[in-house]
């Protein structure tokens, strides 16, 4: 959610049961404005919070030109001092899903994740699944980076038309976006993943009769597997759309109908609900 409208957005997601204290919300808005100015970001956003035992991790990101490929992530423990979040590593992506314990809240802690929760049966060769020496220890900062990447890949959402792909390939926020109507907002095809598309471009072409590549270059959430992994609700007399990810509990997307105001926020422990296919 945009740092310039952070307090208003937090009031909106409060309708969905997500609360951040008044003190932290004020600190976040002021510190994110400073972060945006110091890094010359065009816009800066509050991504959410990952709860830890000792401290919580607050995540933010901003961009200068391209709002999809130019995102730079930061994290903070005290809502004031922001540290650059490193890129997710191959080791972090491999070991993070194996971590069964909660985040401690100390970025420098190193834990032996592999021995606690081995990913392979003892009679199989791990080299068939992982190229190179099998890593066993994971730094919490690397786990945080991988978890943020996983959640963003799976559950970060924007409404259709909010992003526009220019002829030169840059992705910008659409200045002409005026929001979704009631009929469009009730359809999952109108909500797109805020990441690089994984489906072929003609897959999206065949899914919409009013296809426009400049707007429909992203994957829509209605193609996610299994069917039913998203929960769409309408609040405030149908004027507010709330989209919950059932894979990542705590990820909430909101959109005020017929207005350009939208955003998403994650508040949770960074755990994916792998039992979802058996719960639907």
Rg, Cα atoms, Å: 19 Å
**Low-pLDDT windows of residues:** none
Structural shape: globular
User: H/E series, N to C?
Assistant: HHEEEEHEHEHEEEHEHEEEEH
Total number of beta strands: 14
Alpha-beta content class: alpha+beta
Tally the helices: what do you get? 8
Gap between N and C termini: 30 Å
Largest sheet: 8 strands, mixed
Overview of this protein structure:
- It is a single chain.
- This protein has an eight-stranded mixed sheet with strand order 4-3-2-1-14-13-12-11, with helices on both faces.
- The chain has helices spanning 6-13, 22-38, 90-95, 113-116, 140-155, 182-185, 201-207, 276-279; strands at residues 43-50, 57-63, 72-76, 83-84, 110-112, 137-139, 157-159, 163-165, 171-173, 191-193, 230-235, 240-245, 251-256, 262-268.
- The mean pLDDT is 91.
- Among the domains are: 90-149, no CATH class; 157-279, no CATH class.
- The protein is of the alpha+beta class and 280 residues long.
Descriptors:
two-stranded antiparallel sheet, 8 helices, alpha+beta, 280 residues, 14 strands, single chain, 24% helix, cilium, cell projection, cytoskeleton, 8-stranded mixed β-sheet
List strands and helices in order, with pairings.
Layout: H1 6-13, H2 22-38, E1 43-50, E2 57-63, E3 72-76, E4 83-84, H3 90-95, E5 110-112, H4 113-116, E6 137-139, H5 140-155, E7 157-159, E8 163-165, E9 171-173, H6 182-185, E10 191-193, H7 201-207, E11 230-235, E12 240-245, E13 251-256, E14 262-268, H8 276-279
Parallel strand pairs: 1-14
Antiparallel strand pairs: 1-2, 2-3, 3-4, 5-6, 7-10, 8-9, 11-12, 12-13, 13-14
Keywords: Cell projection, Cilium, Cilium biogenesis/degradation, Cytoplasm, Cytoskeleton, Flagellum
Main location: other
Subcellular location: Cell projection, Kinocilium; Cytoplasm, Cytoskeleton, Flagellum axoneme
């Amino acid at each position: 959610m945009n740092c310039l409208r952070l307090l208003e957005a937090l009031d909106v997601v409060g309708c969905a049961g997500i609360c951040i204290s008044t003190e932290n919300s004020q600190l976040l808005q002021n510190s994110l404005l400073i972060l945006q100015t110091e890094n010359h970001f065009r816009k800066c956003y509050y991504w959410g919070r990952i709860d830890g035992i000792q401290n919580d991790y607050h995540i933010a990101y901003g961009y200068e030109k391209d709002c999809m490929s130019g995102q730079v992530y930061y994290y903070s423990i005290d809502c004031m001092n922001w540290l650059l979040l490193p890129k997710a590593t191959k080791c972090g992506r491999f070991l993070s899903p194996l971590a069964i314990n909660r985040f401690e809240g100390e970025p420098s802690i190193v834990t032996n994740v592999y021995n606690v929760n081995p990913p392979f049966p003892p009679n199989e060769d791990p080299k068939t699944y992982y190229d190179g020496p099998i890593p066993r220890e994971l730094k919490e900062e690397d786990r945080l980076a991988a978890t943020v990447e996983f959640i963003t890949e799976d559950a970060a959402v924007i409404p259709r038309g909010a992003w526009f792909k220019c002829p030169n390939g840059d992705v910008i926020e659409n200045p002409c976006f005026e929001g979704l109507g009631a009929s469009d907002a009730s359809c999952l095809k109108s909500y797109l993943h805020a990441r690089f598309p994984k489906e072929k471009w003609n897959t999206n072409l065949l899914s919409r009769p009013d296809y426009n590549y400049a707007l429909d270059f992203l994957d829509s959430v209605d193609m996610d597997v299994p069917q039913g992994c998203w929960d769409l609700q309408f609040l405030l007399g149908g004027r507010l759309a709330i989209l919950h990810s059932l894979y990542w509990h705590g990820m909430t997307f909101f959109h005020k109908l017929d207005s350009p105001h939208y955003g998403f926020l994650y508040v949770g422990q960074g755990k994916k609900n792998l039992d979802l296919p058996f719960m639907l």
